[in-house]
């Protein structure tokens, strides 16, 4: 079945109102449009994602004060949508494992990229030493210390991220999770 894109033009003010409406309802813009189309044209109910999400929906009622606190907390912790924060909170508490934001995942990817670069540098050093031991004077103690510092920085960054995330969800680290 072919998938098609539906577009519309909005001025800046209407676009901002639309985004706020979607955010307040905990949905992305495309999901809200899909839901609206399914409401107007119920026979088009071919969007499995939307129907699946509805069947797994949990509704809670909060005071206005608690909604404001939840919204503030979600934004401070890097979540674009309140629903995403609530879902992550519930998931973290059910599984007792950290749930990462998109920004945290990006940070870990960057960290892994840097660690891979350190690995390449170590391979180059090993190659030089294996090819001709006489060139070992090219590998200095400072070079090895620089690599060691990069690895330590990497470990610190990853540990900080994991600890911050665990504190967010009030999870306790196991011994193997806290090694680093």
What's the structural blueprint in terms of helices and strands?
Layout: H1 12-24, H2 29-40, H3 48-55, H4 64-76, H5 82-95, H6 102-131, H7 141-169, H8 175-178
Helix pairs in contact: 4-5, 6-7
Architecture overview:
The protein has 180 residues and is an all-alpha fold. It is built from eight helices and no strands. The longest helix has 30 residues, at 102-131. The protein is elongated and about 80 Å long. Mean pLDDT is 78; it is low at 49-54.
Assembly form of the protein: single chain
- Rounded Rg: 24 Å
Helix-strand makeup class: mainly alpha
Strand content: under 5%
Count of helical regions: 8
Helical residue percent band: 55-70%
| Major sheet summary line | none
Low-confidence stretches: 49-54
The dominant shape is elongated
Could you give the order of the helices and strands? HHHHHHHH
Compact overview of the structure:
The chain is an all-alpha fold.
Task: Give descriptors for this structure.
180 residues, mainly alpha, 8 helices, elongated
